Structures are given as C-alpha cells and as structure tokens.
Amino acid sequence: MTKNVGWSIFFILSLFIFGCAGLQPGYEKPTVNITSFEAIPTDGMIPKFQIGIHIINPNRTKLQLKGISYTVSLEGHHVITGVSNQLPEIEAYGEGNVVFNASVDLFNSIGFISDLIRNRGKEQISYDLDTKLDAGALYPLIRVSKKGKLSLAQTSKSQ
Q1: What are phi and psi of 113, to 5 degrees?
Q2: Is residue 71 within 8 Å of residue 80, measured between CB atoms?
Q3: Which domains can be identified in the chain, with CATH numbers?
Q4: Nearest to 22 by CA among 138, 142, 141
Q5: Beta bridge partners of 61
Q6: What band does 119 get if pLDDT is binned at 50, 70 and 90?
Q7: Tens digit of pLDDT for each residue in 58-80?
Q8: DSSP structure string for the chain
Q9: pLDDT at position 157
C-alpha cells in the first residue's frame, strides 16, 4: 500500500510542476542591459561601484521581481558579486531601472589588475554580466548573461 501512496504523491507533484510550467506559454526572458557603472565614495580600502541596469519585460504579465543576484567579470576575473531585493515591479510590456551598490572582490581584482599591467597596450577589456532574476516561486529563475567590450581609450579620453 505504501508503494501506491508513493506513486500517487509522485504523480500529483509531477502534474503540479508540469502544470505550473504551462501556465505561461510563450514566456520570454526579460532583457537586461547595463546603463551605468561608476565608482562611489567608500570608507574602507575596498572600492564600491554603483551599477545601473535597465530591464525590459516583453511579456503580457507584469514582472514582480523578488530579488536579483549578479556577477561582473572583467577579462575572465569575477571582480564584482552581489545581490539586491530592492527592485521595481515592471508592468507587462514595460521597462524599469534598477540601481544597486556593489563591492569589489579584492583577491580577484588583484589578478585582473596584474593582467591589465602585463597587457598595457590593450585598448579594450571584455566584460561579462551574469544576472539571476527571481520573479517568485511560481516562475522559473530568469538567467540573463551579457558579454561585451569596454574601451579603455574612451575612458582615458573622457578624463
């Protein structure tokens, strides 16, 4: 009899899991773009940055974000990692901006700076932004990655 109860529970859980996945056919991943990345004053030795992202919701239901975790890598070094739960509700087919403060991982930054010094003539550095957006228990985690290049020539010209 316990085998039948076990199979019944498994069957019901399977229906629930697959049923929830079908609630939103055609669900598309939101788009996440970096809008700003700047240093902010700090009391300690470890630099802090303010990062702005822009989220576009291409779906017919509003996006009620519970949290975000993110990692910024420069030239393959995980330099910044953080989380935030201060997120806006983004309407269906809407957009929203998020600004959060992030601390640098000191040890990984040393490796990045060493590589940068070894390659002084380099005009661009590659970046990776990996984000995980949590829209609540009934929705799958939304993972978005962005890759690109930052021009060092433009940075030095603007200063």
Answers
A1: -65, -40
A2: yes
A3: 25-158 (2.60.40.10)
A4: 138
A5: none
A6: confident
A7: 989 888 889 999 888 888 888 88
A8: -HHHHHHHHHHHHHHHHHHHHTTSTT--PPEEEEEEEEEE--SSSS-EEEEEEEEE--SSS-EE--EEEEEEEETTEEEEEEEE----EE-TT-EEEEEEEEEB-HHHHHHHHHHHHHTTT--EEEEEEEEEEE--TTS--EEEEEEEEEEHHHHHHH-
A9: 41
What pLDDT score was predicted for residue 148? 81
* Residues shown for the chain: 159
Q: Which residue has the tokens 């030795």?
A: 45
What one-letter code names the amino acid at 37? F
- The whole-angstrom distance between residue 99's C-alpha and the CA centroid of its chain comes to 12
